[in-house]
Request: fold
Amino acid sequence: MAGGARSEDRRSVAQKLFAIAEALEGGRRLTLSEVARRAGLPLSTTHRLLAEWTEWGGVERGDDGRYSVGLRMWRLGVRQPTARRLSVLARPYLDDLLEATGEHVHLAVRDGLGATYLERLSGRDPVTVISGVGAKLPLHATGVGLVLLAFAPSDVLEAVLAAGPVKYQPETLTTEPELRAQLAEIRATGLSRSVNALTPGAFSIAAPVLGHTGQVVAAVSIVARTDRMDEPQFAFGVRMAARGISSALGWHST
Amino acid sequence: MAGGARSEDRRSVAQKLFAIAEALEGGRRLTLSEVARRAGLPLSTTHRLLAEWTEWGGVERGDDGRYSVGLRMWRLGVRQPTARRLSVLARPYLDDLLEATGEHVHLAVRDGLGATYLERLSGRDPVTVISGVGAKLPLHATGVGLVLLAFAPSDVLEAVLAAGPVKYQPETLTTEPELRAQLAEIRATGLSRSVNALTPGAFSIAAPVLGHTGQVVAAVSIVARTDRMDEPQFAFGVRMAARGISSALGWHST
Reply:
């Protein structure tokens, strides 16, 4: 509950402002007290900082008094260099992959210990997946995440293990030996094939996207119902899409 | 210049943080001193506040030490309810309009005294226009902006006039009688036909998009070289697209 006897809040003004923005990250429109509760701030502080956010335009207040992310935040966000460039360049390849397979197509980048989804195209008769555009999902539990983890600096895996990877399904790999073996296979084959650890009954094939210097900058995947997964064909399609996007980013295989 | 003998900066911490974000709005990667100069803040303050932004993820610092908008801002921005929903619903209609005409297709919403571009699809042999996705352009000087202004509350026109509308080209309407006459015509015909005031040699046809309660929530336009503007055909196309998007938003004409 908000406004309780909170002994001391050592957060800086900036951190409190960011906590308010995070409260709105889910995309729902929230009341003042909902924002306060989620941000862990007293109503008075929340009200004052929301007023600063709304004056600037980073937050909007609707006619019903509820708050949501504002257009100014959207305008800033679309200027994010990686997301913007990748989305624009990748879109035709992702469209082709969707057209060829009719299954879910995802593009994600690593964002700390998570995979952030830049694009998510829906298949015709899709399995239910929870990865909307802008969602951030755990690296160890998604096909794109495993690819990004496989090619990340080694301290990223260590941080994932230290954080205690959640076992979402019986098939989710969470121990160090399991994960190390899986990541080695991804590096060897350039492809991740896995039961989708977040979505029961879904299978995922993912491949890395390379930037112009050859580093892995993103991952592309198909997610399909296990019984519909045509593995050789989908693997070929994912590889082709990843290669096309990599070329568009300026990567040349030698 | 940054760090000069600044007598007193009465901005709140929040306002200083926002000034730093705004410095990055152009999308270029900036050095610390460039951010400080644009935000009008001393280097020390800029450094400290940039550290808070980057720790949260709203700003990113590249390997070269330059700053840009961070993935977290992008992730928040895509949760902006209006932009997200409008873009997704409008996209097929905008694609059709591009396919049918081969010219620039724009979708914009009113954002204070500006028109913010949610979508901008490029024509095959386009005129040069400056309206990228996320750009915010003056209401009185763009086709979409004039439509949005025509259907905005009357105090918006008053604020535009009070701000002193800029005459970008000889054809740009800037006086109160000119603008009032133009806006009345737009309201009467449901269509704006104008020389694009920001782009020499370009012509714009724009129409309003209605939300489920019948209020104008966005505008869609075609921008084409004046000598290629097929006015009846393009007006038909813009109307069709605007009507399609309105229906997708839940509006029903009676």
